[in-house]
Amino acid sequence: MDSIIEGFLKAFSLIYNLNQELLGIIFLSLKVSGIALIISSIIGVPAGTIIGLRKFPGRGFIISLLNTFMGLPPVVVGLFVYLLLSRSGPLGFMGLLYTPSAMIAAQTILALPIVASLCHSAIVTVDPIIGQAAITLGATPYQKAITIINEARYGILSGIIAGFGRVMAEVGAILIVGGNIAGYTRVMTTTIALETDKGNFELALALGIILLTLSLIINVVLHLFQKKGMISE
């Protein structure tokens, strides 16, 4: 029991003293996950919006595919990206394996279906009367789409935040494609796994506390957006 208490005290000391190794790992985690989220949002939000607003052949299949990919096993994504970026792979010439870029690619693949699918769900749950009212008032198809997107904004933001929560907690895929290289590709989740195996519980606990705090913040923000969305309805 004393060793556990001592471990937590040392962990809080690392956080309080702004340990440089700790800060470097946190910064890299936020950088990799943030870039992956931006890329997945740039692709996923328009894709989810188009799927939600338009009817076209194969739409049902794409929706089913997105819903399936929301539960993609991270290690499978990691293996897929590894094979693409390995020396014998089609993109091996780029030399991206075991770099932050490879980690960003893996996290983007994990976040994209979540962002696109939840964005689509937010669009289709908007009351059809709103679109009909916009047309009645003389709105163009583009203006009607903007009106619907505006009504679904909280749901869309919730999808983006959910995507961020997914990539921040990821370990399997980025461990495979990043290699967990100290000072280069070592992020919070992979460091926790490594330091726990080594018995260095102070750093692992400190990062665990930071990660839990970030998860709490993400969930609180997500709840607030969902609450605002329900109120606006």
- Through-space gap between termini: 51 Å
Domains counted in the coordinates: how many? 1
CATH class: Mainly Alpha
Give Rg in angstroms: 21 Å
The CATH architecture is Orthogonal Bundle
Uncertain ranges:
none
Find the structural class using helix and strand composition. Answer: mainly alpha
User: Element order, helices and strands?
Assistant: HHHHHHHHHHH
What is the molecular shape? globular
* CATH third-tier fold name: MetI-like fold
What's the average pLDDT? 87
Please count the beta strands (DSSP E, at least 2 residues each). Answer: 0
How many separate helices?
A: 11
From the structure above, extract its key features.
233 residues, mainly alpha, MetI-like fold, 0% strand
How are the SSEs ordered, and which strands pair?
Blueprint: H1 2-16, H2 20-53, H3 59-69, H4 74-85, H5 100-124, H6 128-136, H7 141-151, H8 153-168, H9 172-178, H10 188-198, H11 201-232
Helix pairs in contact: 1-11, 2-5, 2-8, 3-5, 4-5, 4-9, 5-8, 5-9, 6-7, 8-11, 10-11
